[in-house]
Automatic annotation (TrEMBL):
Compartment(s) of residence: Periplasm
Organism of derivation: Denitratisoma oestradiolicum
Gene from which this protein is expressed: flgJ
Pfam families: Glucosaminidase, Rod-binding
Family: In the C-terminal section; belongs to the glycosyl hydrolase 73 family. In the N-terminal section; belongs to the FlgJ family.
Mannosyl-glycoprotein endo-beta-N-acetylglucosamidase-like domain boundaries: 142-295
Main location: periplasm
Keywords: Cell wall biogenesis/degradation, Glycosidase, Hydrolase, Periplasm
Function: Flagellum-specific muramidase which hydrolyzes the peptidoglycan layer to assemble the rod structure in the periplasmic space.
Domain of life: Bacteria
Single Gene Ontology BP annotation: cell wall organization
GO CC, one annotated term: periplasmic space
Any GO MF annotation of the entry: hydrolase activity, acting on glycosyl bonds
Stated name of the protein: Peptidoglycan hydrolase FlgJ
InterPro entries noted in UniProt: Flagellar_prot_FlgJ_N, FlgJ, Glycosyl_Hydrolase_73, MGlyc_endo_b_GlcNAc-like_dom
Record lineage: Bacteria, Pseudomonadati, Pseudomonadota, Betaproteobacteria, Nitrosomonadales
Amino acid sequence: MNSSSVEPNIFDVGRLASLKRQVKGNDPQALKEAARQFEALFLQMVLKSMRDATPKEGMFDSEQTRMYESLLDQQLTQVMAGKGGTGLAAMIEKQLTRASGDPEAMEGGLPLTPELRPLSLEKPAPTLRIDPLGRSDGAVTPVTVAGGANQFVDKVWPHAQEAARSLGIPPHFLVAQAALETGWGKSEPRFPDGRPSYNLFGLKAGRSWTGPVVESATIEYVDGVPQRQVERFRAYASYGEAFADYAQLMASSPRYAAVRGSQEGTAFAHGLQRAGYATDPMYAVKLERIISGATLRQALIG
């Protein structure tokens, strides 16, 4: 079956990772699919603007309904782009093909149209302020998500794959959790001299921890009320060590037995919250959004 005939699915992150590899090899079919993904992202921005401009009130308006509405919009834009959409994908594909040096694609062109430069698929993203679940004092460093997410995923992906294999869960779940905990790597605990701790999962240094320690301000929720505290966090020599320690904790603690082997983002996120991984009452919702969100999908494509 041709891959283009398969109905697109926003949760099929493995397909997007495969597409990333194919695009690097200048596969024409992969270029077509990458163009469709960009059009889907554009349509998603249009729908989001429409939703934001629509008054929200009534008994069915809540954080949860808005989350599922966002998932519906993401899936809808995938289907629209796959069926032709606005025609934007075809234009992008043509420019990508020009960039790949295909002689046939270089011939002809639209009349009276000047030579076009290849269109970059990396759109400038707005600066977001991400609160990594109380792992800072709330004054979080602004993060440019588009570039920062791509760089972050490139650095941690091999370690996430290795840790995920031992836990029986998809690796992008771990990447999403690390992104949430650290604001895509920008807000991990640091030593006073600025050295990184490589602590991607907010793991604290309890009595049993014998390794290096770094102190950092954090927000903890007590009875649902945020409180500023200074806590001792574990420090590592590399991201590889951080993922290995996280995997060991998940594998050895009975608290996380229900999390191991999770294949759905919702089950993974809510399993962590029920096990008491974090005190933030919105932890699972925030993690679900990253797992199913466009930022992570685009970062996995590259």
